[in-house]
Amino acid sequence: MQPNSTLQLIEDCDATNKTLYKFYAAVMIVIFTLALPLNASVLHLFIFKLKFWKSNTNNIFLFNLVLADILLLFCLPIKAHNFINGERRSKNESICKAMLFMLFLNRGASIAFLTVTSIDRYFNVVHPGRKNLLRALKKSPQISIVIWLLLLPLTIPTMLQNFECCNSHKSSKDDTLVKDVVDSLREAVFFTQIIIPFVILVYCTVHIVNRLRKKTVGDRTKLRRAVFLVTSVMVVFSFCFLPCTIARMVLLITRVQEADEYYQDKAAVAFDGLMVLSYIDCLLDPLIYCFCSTKFKALYLSTYFPCILKNQQVPLDSSTENKTHHTCKTVI
């Protein structure tokens, strides 16, 4: 093996461990196979059963969260195909740019709507009745469109250069100030997209849990379930997104310090694997946020698996939607 050959493979976006990348591809295929029908069925309920556009805006946030996840899922088969062929990304420049745009826009939207939903529920539980900016804004359904539009500029730095193949802040004689600025902007987008929502989510979760534990009235079983659910949201977010963030940080350190190609390769492979892990969020989001209401779960089962609920009546029209999501809105 010639000197720097492994490092050159990384720069050319070729997988140095093809067997491991085929395993990554298999994991993505499993995630896609399980998450696509789940998200599609929940999306169907929001549109045709609950008519989310006529309901409270919290359900519009949930709809957008599921929509962002399902759009992100469509990227997984392409990434899996690349990994199977021993490529860390498509060699076709147009496909690569389109993939980066879809991945960062929809991943960012998923995290953004998850964060907004958590803030909304924080005010509902911890400060009920208090006037706040979010409560004023959410009276207008157009706020969801604004969130999508605000996310668009964040995709620009990710597509200016080859982000996915870990070339940020690569030491080179051809380095320029513009390249350094672009690299820094790209990394800032990646880290702030996860770290800031995580801090907000931890803050909201801690205060919601403390508030619920201080309640002296109400069904204790429901309160315990509520504490479990809000804690689960934070745990799932941490499990899906923090590992890839740490791996990215380690990878940047190895690049900036010009570490041995062996360590740069291991860091790049670990980062790719933990990015695959982050896609599990698309599978867990609908389970946590949409099925936190027993009535929504009953509605889902009665629609798709009616044999399970033979002797139970479940409200199916939009007029009962507020009752269906009452537990999900006020407790989580």
Structure description:
By secondary structure, the protein is mainly alpha-helical. It has one domain (13-161, 176-331): Rhopdopsin 7-helix transmembrane proteins. The chain contains 15 helices and no strands. Helix 2 (18-49) runs parallel beside helix 12 (281-290) and helix 3 (57-73) packs antiparallel against helix 5 (93-126). 36% of the residues are buried.
Compact summary:
The protein has 332 residues and is mostly helical. It has helices spanning 5-11, 18-49, 57-73, 76-84, 93-126, 133-137, 143-151, 156-160, 177-214, 220-256, 261-278, 281-290, 294-304, 321-324, 326-331.
Strand content: under 5%
Radius of gyration based on Cα positions: 22 Å
Average pLDDT works out at 80
Biggest sheet record:
none
CATH topology category name: Rhopdopsin 7-helix transmembrane proteins
- Shape summary: globular
Low-confidence stretches: 315-332
Family: Belongs to the G-protein coupled receptor 1 family.
Membrane topology: Multi-pass membrane protein
GO molecular function, one term: G protein-coupled receptor activity
Main location: membrane
Secondary-structure map:
Elements: H1 5-11, H2 18-49, H3 57-73, H4 76-84, H5 93-126, H6 133-137, H7 143-151, H8 156-160, H9 177-214, H10 220-256, H11 261-278, H12 281-290, H13 294-304, H14 321-324, H15 326-331
GO molecular function: G protein-coupled receptor activity
Family: Belongs to the G-protein coupled receptor 1 family.
Membrane topology: Multi-pass membrane protein
Short key terms for the protein model shown above:
mainly alpha, Rhopdopsin 7-helix transmembrane proteins, 15 helices, 73% helix, disordered C terminus
